[in-house]
Design a protein that fits this description.
The chain is of the alpha+beta class. Helices cover about 20% and strands about 25% of the residues. Keywords: Transferase.
Amino acid sequence: MGAAGAIEAALTVLTVVRGTVPPTAGFTAPDAATAGIDLVHGAARPQHVRLALSHSLGFGGHNTVLAFTAV
């Protein structure tokens, strides 16, 4: 479990570098509760990403947020 944050951070960097937003896991179709929210579902979407955040939570209240920007 300790490496999960590192894997998430690496995938977040790939999102910024490749300009592709991955789909939201487990989300199949929008409904009234998600109306007006731009959620990616089904397949990844090409999109210019200038800033992305990777937020990881750990046992004992350890929290880390990393911000990645395009160069």
